[in-house]
Structures are given as structure tokens and as C-alpha cells.
Amino acid sequence: MVLTLFSSLDAQPMSEKQMFEKGKELSYEGQVQKARSLIEEMESETEPKSQDDGSTGLILSMIWGAFGAGYFIFGKKQSRAVFLLCGIGLCVFPYFIPSAFVSFVVGLILCLLPFKIRF
After folding, report:
1. Could you tell me if residue 50 is inside a domain?
2. Residues 6 and 36 in one domain
């Protein structure tokens, strides 16, 4: 009787085994199992995120820019070319260096350079 009902709706007739599987899939446990399998599939497809999401580089750029502005103003008022040039360098270099670690190293070198070099 069930088979004739499906055939009258232009659907293919299902065997008892197929109907049992469909009922099992539509049950609560079946839905939970399907959701878990979909989550596992999505997690396996996604690439792991890198640890540097850009916020570290942005904060470092702001810090180096602040130091650069200070060095530039100090170098201009005191007529000290090394501070002036390092200030310009500190303001500009973050635009060209994408890595946070390299940015930290270069910024640290540019901050300490005026104290080691005298003109």
C-alpha cells in the first residue's frame, strides 16, 4: 500500500530497507549524527588560520609611527640629521614590511640607531 502511494506522487517506490534508513536519518539521533559529520567535514576543509591576523602589525605600525613622529620633531628642532632620518624611516617602513616579527626587528633597529651613530 505504501509503495502505491509513492508511485502515485511520481516518486520512485522505496523498499522497506530504504524506508527504514530514511526514518533512521530523520530521527533525532540521525539528525545529530548528520550534523556531526557535516561539522567534521567543514573542519577538515578549512585551512588553519595563521597566528598573525593583522592586528599585531597594525599596532606595531602605530607604535613605530609615534616613535617616528617624535624622532622627526626632535631631529628637526635640534638639527640632528640621524634622528630626522630615523624618524622618517620609522614612519614609512611599516608600509613595506608585512611580517610583524620583521617589523619589530626593523623598528627596534631604527629606534636604537640614532644613539649609536653620531654625525
Report:
1. no
2. yes
Other CB atoms within a 10 A radius of the CB of residue 21 amount to 13
With 0.70 as the threshold, say if the pTM is over it.
no
pLDDT for 118 beyond 90:
no
Confidence of residue 75 (pLDDT cuts 50, 70, 90): very high
CA 68, CA 111: separation in Å to the nearest integer? 8
Tell me how far apart the 2 most distant CA atoms of the chain are, in Å. 100
- Which residue's entry shows cell 619589530? 104
DSSP H helices in 1-119: 2-8, 16-26, 28-45, 55-78, 81-92, 100-116
CA 16 from centre of chain: 50
Q: Residues 99, 60: contact at Cβ < 8 Å?
A: no
Backbone torsions φ then ψ of 16, nearest 5 degrees: -65, -40
Which residue range(s) make up the domain with 26?
2-45
Domain count, the chain: 2
